[in-house]
Amino acid sequence: MDAKHYNVLRDDKYGRYLVTSKELDGGELIFTDQPFAVGPKAGKYNTPPLCLGCYCPVENTLCSRCGWPVCGAQCERDPQHIAECEIFSMAKVRFQPVADWTSSAPQLDCITPLRLLLAKEKDPERWRQELEMMEVHTESRQQRPTWSMDQVNIVDFLVDHCKLGDRFSKETVQKACGILEVNAVEIPSRGGFSIRAVYPRLAIAAHSCVPNIVHTILQDNYKVEIRAAIPIKKGEPLYLCYTHALSPTIVRREYLLESKFFNCDCPRCSDPTELGTHLSTIKCNKCDNGVILSTNPLDNDAQWICTEKTCGFKTSGGAMRKMLAVVQAEVDQLDLLEPGPQAIEQREATINKYKSVFHPRHSILLSIKYALAQLYGRVEGYSIDELPDLMLERKAEYCRMVLKTLDVITPGDSRMRGMMLYELHAPLMYLARNEYSIGLITKDKLKERLQEPLQCLADAARILSREDPQSPEGITGQIAAQCLEQLKASLEAI
Ligand SMILES: [Zn+2]
Ligand SMILES: [Zn+2]
Ligand SMILES: [Zn+2]
Ligand SMILES: [Zn+2]
């Protein structure tokens, strides 16, 4: 039996939202949800053509029946693709050849709305009970340029070109677009590519930039499991974070307004220091000790001023956004590097370049440190047993820095915490052993020092055991469990 430990309430601020129906322990399963529809993201998120069965990137391989992108014969028969395949074949509407198979493909924008509509036909009862009343923010969406693009690429395309007018009205298709735009979540596909899905129950959970629930996607059927991240009292609202947890306030609030149509005023957004994490804090270059903070983080255009009273440096919210966007674009390039010595060295260079601009725990620097914490010990020339103590210490320092921030912004068990705890165990273990081998610490001291990595592994294994066993996090969880057994055995042998 699936768990169901929630009730649905309604108020003016959140609309519908979820509260717990009983007291929950951290890690406890609250409910599961099946996606109503799964499919590619919209072209405006820069998704190149991908296989409509498995979502891997494709080039020039098309379905032999309908002429839309699939990677091979097996995916032509994928249950995800069969229904639309029939519609495209019947209407003789083929995917138009593209010159560049790596650039965004708005032709695929119709796929997920079509799948949502076909799911509505198949399960009208669930549509009526769970999707009909979903937020679609029609008035706000009508103001945007994407509205007329959707009208052409999706609504007119499906109704007129694909001859679905007798099955779906243009209003219904536009409603499907709205449901997706407002309620869909980004999920990893089986192959690790980013796609989107609508989970009707999960979509009711309210947002906070300090969430109290976590969700795990199972890869074989994209079912989602929702768990308590921390202990939650009976009757408390369940909060999911709809945006990237490590982003700074300006970026999170802009994303939430753009894609979810609300202005977040959660405790983290309201605090210029982001609850003391300093994810948004800039260093002042006009004085020695000042930092620059927003005078009102709930207003994106508010001024930013130096905290040092005698300094008085000021800048505009607009200038701050522009500066962040420029640096972020540079940092995004780092993610394109293959894992190798370059991936480490270029990240270290970027930290050096910006260490006088940002607080050491600013989102930009912390994200790079998060990546480095995973790269040290993993790539050629930087394998864990050839890292000098100095670098082992740095790896441990970056892990602790990320964990300290996670304590505040995603308290309790989260994937990111599990991954960082796993990374932290290795340098702690190697540093202790190195010190013992050169006679710096006694045998008893070594045993004592190995308790912390032991605990890191136990926590990482526990947190990550909830992830899909095929996902990168699930695999790390299994490795953590093995390392835990090995470390226990070697502790007994000391
Ligand atoms: Zn495929
Ligand atoms: Zn097909
Ligand atoms: Zn917020
Ligand atoms: Zn200053």
From TrEMBL:
Domain of life of the native organism: Eukaryota
Membrane-traversing stretches: none
InterPro entries: SET_dom_sf, SET_SmydA-8
SUPFAM superfamilies for the chain: SET domain
Protein name according to UniProt: Protein msta, isoform A
Lineage of producing organism: Eukaryota, Metazoa, Ecdysozoa, Arthropoda, Hexapoda
